[in-house]
Amino acid sequence: MEGELLRFALPDGRPATLLLGPASTVLAVEDEIVSSWDLAGRPYALVRESGTYRRALDGRLLHKREAAQEVPRLRRRLTPEEGEPVVEAARREAEAALRVLGDNDEAARRLGRVTAMGLRALREDAARFLSVCGRVGILPPDQYLSLVVRVTEGCSWNACTFCGFYRDVPFRWKTEEELAAHTAALRAFFGESIALRSSVFLGDANALCLAHEKLRPLVASVAREFPDRPLASFVDAWTGRGKTADEYREYARLGLRRVYVGLETGDPELLAWLEKAGSPEDAVELSAALHEAGVDLGVIVLLGAGGERFFGSHVTATADVLGRMRLGPRDFLYFSELVDDPGLEYGRRSAGAPDLAPLPPERCAEQRGAILGAIRWVDPAHPPRVATYDIREFVY
Asked: Which long-range contacts (CB under 8 A, 24 or more apart) does 276-279 make?
């Protein structure tokens, strides 16, 4: 384990451990209560008896608790005000640790930053984050601790019936001058705590959709500003396929390591019903260009979309397309369960058609298994990494 590990007892006698890591400070009390802060003293993960809390930079918290015996699974988003008692309890534990470890210079420095982040300071810090970055709509699960640089804002398509992340965000891209000011503001906000952000995500929803002559100078600017971090981004298949392998190779030289593509389904009829532009074949072509350029993929498949009406065709066609995308061990395959939201167009359209209602979790699990069982991988001994993408658990 990297960093300095200190074992001690709090003033009330409870055993505790403090890890002074290279990118975070972690305090464990009786190995059950664990608090993690970045190097600026911002809490980002808290484990309590009541469950796990993940705090976003804008102050909101996600409270999670797995099902156990008679206790149901919990997943609830808290406002900053609702989460403040949990955050403040962790800060008081840090104060208690500081009273014991005050003669250790590094521990005192780290814990001093944590204890200085009282509720008022955290509110002001959250407001400053929003002024610097704005609200981050969504990220892939392996990018939750990335540094988001908003090369673009909003979504260039913004019409999919199942997505509402960017409905109120007009699509635009930054000029080179705006981007330089944006990255400078991000550096000033994060300061030393940028160490926790091991990669850079080029936001927002479809940043790589820009024409090559517009996009390349922007990516080059980000690469110069953060040369030690790999780059990742979203792109829609129908716009992403418009770039050549040589163009993607240029981005790879600038540090682009992975591109995330919302395939959603391999069924063209279902894709059209979801009002997502393009066709599944676009994803096959995009995959070939990215792989040729040495860029890895993160492919996202939507489970439960189209309900029972499209269950079989979704399985068969999606498995076929995924096989032809020639995914390998460096790629990700994410399965994302459709979240039923009556406020979105999908919910309104399916309201009068029971066979189009999103599938329940158990049927989504069956669909996932059926797709995986039907895929013919290019190298069965080395398939891509398969994981769950639950948008209800996103926190930045």
From this structure: 276/157, 276/160, 276/236, 277/157, 277/159, 277/236, 277/238, 278/236, 278/237, 278/238, 278/239, 278/241, 279/238
